[in-house]
Structures are given as C-alpha cells and as structure tokens.
Amino acid sequence: MEKSINALRFLGLDMINKANSGHPGIVLGAAGTVYELFTKHLNANPTKPNWFNRDRFFLAAGHGSALLYATLHLCGYNLSIEELRDFRQLGSITPGHPEFGHTPGVDSTTGPLGQGIAMSVGNALAESYLSASFNKEDITVIDHYTYALCGDGDLQEGVAMEAMALAGRLKLSKLILLFDSNDIQLDGPTHLATNEDIKAKVESMNWDYQIVNEPNDLTDLSKAIEQAKKSDKPSFIEVKSIIGFGSKNAGTSKTHGSPIGTEETANMRKSLGYDYKEFVVPEEVYEDFKNSFKARGEKLNKIWEENLVKYQEKYPNEFLELSLIMSNDINIDFDKLIPQENSVNEATRVTIGKLINTLSPHSKALIGGSADLTSSTKVKGINGDFDFDNRTGRNINFGVREHAMAGIINGMVLHNLKAFSGGFFIFSDYMKPAIRIAALMDIPATYIFTHDSVAVGEDGPTHEPIEQLTMFRAMPNINVFRPGNANEVRHAFRYALEAKKTPNIIALTRQNIKVDYTVNYDTFKKGAYTVYGGKDFEAILLATGSEVELAVETAELLKQENNINVRVVSMPSRELFIKQSRDYRTEVLPEDKLIIAVEMGSTLGWYEFADIVYGIDEFGRSGKGEEVQEYFGFTKEKLAKFYLDNLN
Fold first, then answer.
1. Which pTM does this prediction carry?
2. Do residues 465 and 581 both lie within one domain?
C-alpha cells in the first residue's frame, strides 16, 4: 500500500519536474486520499471508461491534475507513461488542468476553483433523478456515487457555497466531498483570508460532516467514506493533510505551485524508501491497482450489463427511453408536437414555457428550472419540484444562485440529461464562468435567458442587457440564438435538444412579438435568411429577436411612403450563419448592397456583416419599455429616418 501511494507521489513529481511546471503540494499531500478512494471505494471500469453506472470523480482542485493522471495510469486507463512524460506539453492528452473528452477517465473539465463542486452536485442530482425514474423494485440500473476532491480555494469560491447549499437542501445523499484540508493556499496560511468554522458551516447547509485528523491513517478515511454512504445527506469529509508532504518545504505555500526539482525529489525518494528511477513503477504497484480498482470495476460493470439485459426484457419501454439517454439521443417528433404558427402575438419567453410543457412528457431527459424566476422566465420543468421526497420532479428550484445553477446544469448534462436553466439575460454575467466551462467541454447544455434587451423597461439599466450578446458571441464553441418569433424559438429549442455537442444560449423577449412569417428547420439552421422583400431591393435591414418585427415594419413604411424596396434578413444565430458556404452567405447578404444591422445592444461585432449598425453602446434607462425603446430610437419612424439619412 505505501509503495503504491509513493508511486502516485513520485509519478506526479516526475511529471511536474519534467514539465518544470505544476502543483506538487496537492500531489504529495492528497496521494493517500486518492489511493484509498480509488482502490477501496470508487467503482469504474478503465476498459469501458464511459460505463453509464460508474461512480464519477470530480477533481475540483484541478491544479492537482498530475495526481489524477498518475492515478488513471496506474488504474489501467489508456494513459501511457509516455503521455505522463508529456504533461503540460502542447498537443498532449495530459494538459495542465483536467479536460473532459480529452483524457480517458476524466469526468469533467476543472481548474477554475469551485466549478468541480457545482458540477458534482449536478451529477449527483442527475443520478438521484435517473434512479428514481428508471429503477424497479426487482432491478436496479442506476445506482452510483459522485465523489469530489476539493481544496481550501474551492470552498472560498461563491459558486461552491451556492451549490453546496442546494445539495444540502435537496439531501443529495450519494454525493461525497473530500476536502484536502492543509490550511495553506498560494499566498500563505488560509487564516490570512478566512477564519470560518467549516464544520459548523457545512452542517448548517445540511451536510453530514466528518474529519480525518491523520491523513496517512487510511483506515479512518475508509471508515469515514463508508459512514458517508449511510447518511441521508450529502457528506463532507475533511482530511487534515500536509501540503508538500515529505519535501523540505512541507506545510508551506512554497510547494503549492512550483516544481520541487529533481535534486529534492531524489532526496525524497531516499527518505520515503522509494528506490525507483524517474517514471519507473514497480510491477507490484500495477498489480495492486489491477487487483483492486480494475478487478472490482470490471466485475460490477459485467453485473450491471447482465441486469440491463433483464431490464430490457422485462421493461422494454423504460429500457428504450433509458437507452436514448445513455446514447445522448432524443426521439421527439417536433413537427407533429409543435407545428408552426401563423397568427399569435406573444413574448418569446411565453413560447419557451409552452414548448417545455409540450415536449417534456415525451422525454425524461428534459429537466431544469430557473434561478427563482419561473413566473417571469416561464422556464420551469414538469412533474412538480425535484426534492428529497419527489425525486422524479423535473422542476429544480435553484434559488437565487445563478452561478451554481449553470455549474449544476453542466453536471447534469455530463450525465446525459437534456438539462436547461432559466434566468434574466443580465444575470448571465453571474453564469459566464460555468458557461465557458461547458464550451470547453463541448457539452450540449442549454441556457435560456429572458428579458433580453432595454425593452425590460422599468427595472432600469441594472436589468437591461447591452453587452451580453456580444460577450457570448465572442466565446468560442457556443451557439447564441436570439429568435425573432415563436417559430424561431421552436427551432432554436429543437436545435439545443438535438445537439450532442456544443452548448446553446437562447435569448428571449419580455415583450410580445407578432408571428407573421414561418421558416422550415433546415433553413433556420443556416443561421440567417430573408423574411421580407423580393429580389429587387436597394438595401438590407439585418436584425435579430424583436428587432426583426421592427425591421419588417420599417421596410413596409419605406415602401409605402418612399417607394423604397428593402430586404429584411433575420439572423437568429451568427455562429450557424458563419458556417454556411460563401455562396449562401452572399445570396442572403449581397456584398454590393447597403446592409444595416439592427439590434438593441452593443454594436461591437456587427461590422463583420453590416456597413452600418443601429444599436446601443451605452447603458439603458428606467421607464416603460415602449418609452425606453423610443428613447433609443427603436421605432419604425426613427429607423426609417435613419435609413433615409444614410442614403444621402
């Protein structure tokens, strides 16, 4: 056992020394904790790393990636010694912080502190929901734990506290958080920044608390984990470790983020009795992990597959739906369930509420909720509220916890659910870090935002988005939809639900929009298309969202009063439009025509498509929505005048 723990320590140190970059402190201090967890408790199969019913492990303290990679290598995942040698090198599969989909055995991308905790909460919530939805009295198909390893820094981040508070409220009893508690952070002892009573804090959030005072006494740690599994609450196990254990600077911040060096590492090898060269692991260590972690995982995986066959035979309908979730598919006849409408005048936030209610009964994958705003956003799951006494409820009361909400949604999507969140668009500022993680992981999370412009009105500039669309459009690997009517909302939500990769943002209105045009799904997926005007036109009004209606009204006014023909183009998604062929793009937006982009938000970015931009580059105002729109010039009369002025 001690040799195996030292193998983890020195593989980690060798990786960091070779890269001359990394975080040795947690590698040395938490190696025993990780060893005990993987060899005695965590159930997963390295030969089938995507086994659906495996235990999940979230390394919230993502800077400890060298420890994770060393563990995955010894456990038998497809991660060779050569790849450990390439730690932190360009093009390697052992990057500086863990990346989901990049390295076998990594269950989530982590690094920004606190995100791993929020995602672990979402994953545990998903397990609880799925087990209640699919397990039968005679056959269990979903039954696993979610583990996370965090440090002091994670627990100082607000997103972690938000998520933990909700986990405690919901009694997510199969969530076990291991706290590598060494009282040190990068700038020195933690008492310089905090003096809280962590036991009282987590217990006040309805978590079960235990402490392991001797980190090298793995018997106590195992007992604590076993006790945690019996709790009816989420469990928090504080492990009092020593950062940089065994090094000359052990117990100090000097070991947090700086390589120890080959000379010091060689001395440590002698003092800890580990007489092996760099990147050399004795066969008995491989055998230890093989006979514990790998053997257990393969056996449990096989039993599960046998149970799944029985489940399929006895419960074919439930099996079919579970299979769709496991393969990240959705089987909904969108055209039949939500036909396009020709005559309705409603806010697009109302439309999304109708869509969720209509589609959710046809797929158990749909689950989500809003940050204490369902009456305004209309983003609410069905079947009642998810709670400790209603595990099949599909509406999640996130409370006023936008950042955690986004992270929890990510954790649920990592468990193959079509999870969605709802909030005011202005508060996407609180969610951006977690949304960026989703884009990095390339997972199809759905973030629905309402109150998408200054048309919010009376709440004023604190609640009126200006730069948020630009912010997300600048983010790599994400689709931003701003639908112009109910039919575009229909297609945008369908696109998000059918996606297997890439997160999607859908920004919706508070104010009503008339539905006076339809578009088929294939055309919508091109990102932009003509909604008004024939082939004979002088210029183009390019718009999104509610401004499409304004652009059409303006074009009609110019036709009636000035005999000017103007084309109107709706661009619900820049990202999809950019992916189209040059021929299609120039067909929709000919280069020889004057193009005016119209959007109630920042003008930044629109000059890629337009010659002139009619937008808002200042904060909003407080007043009635219609009055605020008129103040900024978003009426057909003022837009028509702007157009005529720019012809001269």
1. 0.98
2. no
Please identify, among 480, 514, 548, the residue that sits at the C-terminal boundary of a domain.
514
Residues 432 and 564 occupy one common structural domain? no
Q: Is the pLDDT of residue 342 over 80?
A: yes
Phi, psi dihedrals of residue 227, rounded to the nearest 5°: -65, -40
What is the Cα–Cα distance from 258 to 9, expressed in whole angstroms?
A: 15
Looking at residues 95-105, what average pLDDT do you find? Answer: 98
- C-alpha–C-alpha distance, residues 564 and 558, integer Å: 5
Of 482, 514, 546, which closes a domain? 514
- Read off the tokens for 163: 């998520």
Question: Any catalytic annotation for residue 402?
Answer: yes
Give domain status of residue 139, yes or no: yes
Instruction: Please count the residues of the chain.
Output: 648
Confidence band of 215 (pLDDT split at 50, 70, 90): confident
Please give the DSSP secondary-structure letter assigned to residue 395: B
Count the Cβ atoms, other than its own, within 10 Å of residue 68: 28
Residues 480 and 585 in one domain: no
The CATH code of the domain that includes 605 is 3.40.50.920
Residue 262 structure tokens: 């080959």
- Match 């109630």 to its residue by tokens: 600
Provide the domain count of the chain.
3
- Write down the catalytic residue from 36, 298, 346, 402: 402
Assigned token pair, 197: 């009573």
Residue 648 confidence class, pLDDT cut points 50, 70, 90: low
Please give the residue range of the domain that contains residue 247. Answer: 2-299
3-state secondary structure 614-626: ECCCCCCCCCCHH
> Where residue 155 sits, what CATH number does that domain have?
3.40.50.970
Render pLDDT for 220-234 as a digit per residue (tens, 0 to 9). 999 999 999 999 999
**CB–CB of 39/290 below 8 Å?**
no
Looking at the fold, whether 30 and 131 belong to one and the same domain comes out as yes
Query: Are 435 and 535 found together in one domain?
Result: no
Taking phi over 0 as left and psi of -120 to 50 as alpha, with beta for the rest, 111 belongs to left
The residue among 470, 420, 642, 480 whose CA lies nearest residue 550 is 642
392: which residues sit within 8 A by CB, 6+ positions away? Answer: 129, 132, 133, 383, 386
Tell me the C-alpha to C-alpha distance, in Å, between residue 416 and each of 240, 322, 324, 443, 619: 35, 10, 9, 9, 39
What is the band of 216 on the pLDDT scale with cuts at 50, 70, 90?
confident
**pLDDT per position as a tens digit, 243-260:** 999 999 999 999 999 999
